[in-house]
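hey
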């Protein structure tokens, strides 16, 4: 099954994201560019280099000639990690201003290329990090990835922000696509069980995600009965758990589980699904 993802909305989210990241980076000094991020082995500049590398690939730019030594880079655990590391190592010692200029150049070029795409091209089958799907789905995943790395940078430099808006909405749309897998396959929920994620911002609910198990776990618009388990947590905690940036024990004080606590604990433990 292919995913039909809104074109204008997703491109607007990427534009919002890249502008937010640019504004953030423009306010950093060289020392802050070197601060370690939540991702093992990567500092702030390395996160930016990774974003540049992906957009360069999508522009058809040739990969730098860099050989990644996995033994010397313990954080590189698979082929995708090795691919990502090429641009990270290529730009690791570059002056921050040069890296920022390259980020501006490539993201500007990508927005122009995306705007020029036809609807048929956007909806065409494509490689994505989640397997074969539409090019639009790939771009929805790009929103998810770029927003997470923006938060990695913000966490590293202690400048919170951009926790609401279109990019966050699209990020949550992408996360929803994995919740059936998380609840059914990873957490082991069985037929008749259901899980509701109540996502909050400043204490107010901003999104409900309902997952029901009936032969196969799937996200549904609503439940016919109260959820077996309801997990209430901030959007930032949910996203960081899904991306493996924090473990469940570290953020336990920000999470409330009601109903079947055992199932809720299993879901929280299984929540990390990204590579």
């Amino acid at each position: 099954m292919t995913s039909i993802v809104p074109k204008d909305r997703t491109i607007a989210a990427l534009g919002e994201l890249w502008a937010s990241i640019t504004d953030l980076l423009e306010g950093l000094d060289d020392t802050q560019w070197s601060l370690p991020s939540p991702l093992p082995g990567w500092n702030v500049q390395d996160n930016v280099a990774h974003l540049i590398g992906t957009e360069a690939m999508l522009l058809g730019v040739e990969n730098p000639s860099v050989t990644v030594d996995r033994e010397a880079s313990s954080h590189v655990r698979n082929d995708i990690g090795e691919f990502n590391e090429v641009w990270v190592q290529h730009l690791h010692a570059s002056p921050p201003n040069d890296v920022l200029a390259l980020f501006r150049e490539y993201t500007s070029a990508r927005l122009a290329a995306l705007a020029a795409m036809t609807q048929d091209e956007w909806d065409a089958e494509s490689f994505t990090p989640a397997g074969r799907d539409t090019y639009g789905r790939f771009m929805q995943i790009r929103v998810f990835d770029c927003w997470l790395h923006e938060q990695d940078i913000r966490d590293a430099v202690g400048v919170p922000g951009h926790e609401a808006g279109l990019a966050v909405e699209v990020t949550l749309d992408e996360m929803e696509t994995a919740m059936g897998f998380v609840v059914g396959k990873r957490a082991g929920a069985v037929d008749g069980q259901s899980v509701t994620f109540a996502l909050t911002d400043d204490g107010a609910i901003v999104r409900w995600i309902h997952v029901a198990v009936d032969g196969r776990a799937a996200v549904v618009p609503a439940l016919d009965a109260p959820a077996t388990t309801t997990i209430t947590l901030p959007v930032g905690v949910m996203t960081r758990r899904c991306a493996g940036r924090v473990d469940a024990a570290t953020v336990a004080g920000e999470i409330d589980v009601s109903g079947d606590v055992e199932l809720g604990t299993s879901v929280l433990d299984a929540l990390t699904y990204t590579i």
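Residues 169-270 form a domain with the Nonspecific Lipid-transfer Protein; Chain A fold (CATH 3.30.1050.10). The mean pLDDT is 93.
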